[in-house]
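Sequence only, no structure available. Ideas?
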Amino acid sequence: MSYASWYTRLARSAARFCGRPRVFVLALGIIVAWLATGPLFGYSDTWQLVINTGTTIVTFLIVFLIQNTQNRDTEAIQVKLDELIRATQGAHNALLDLEELEEERLEDFRRRYQALAAAARAELARGERDTGTPEP
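Reply:
I predicted one. Tokens follow.
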């Protein structure tokens, strides 16, 4: 088993676990318990350090889980969009994999589609339909 697949499985499991309501309740319970022990420890620096260290470690690790989940979701959405473009008659296959283009080239596509949208709005204003494809 590769390191990447091990990490992916761990990240998926951890993200599923951390997203459950009972984990939120557990975290809330830890904070309440920490607050309740404040008078017992005289609100000392060590008492504060415990919660600060714990939250810092958890936050640090959760950032990586969130990024991993976001990356996987984004890639899956891109593949699905690519498939819709590929399977739609009249769609431009040049739009496949746009996320891989350099910023300047991507901006060219964006300007082209802004012009198409402006033309469609103008057609609507003249009472025409804005459906169909602009190319013959």
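DSSP finds four helices and no strands in the chain.
Hope that gets you unstuck.
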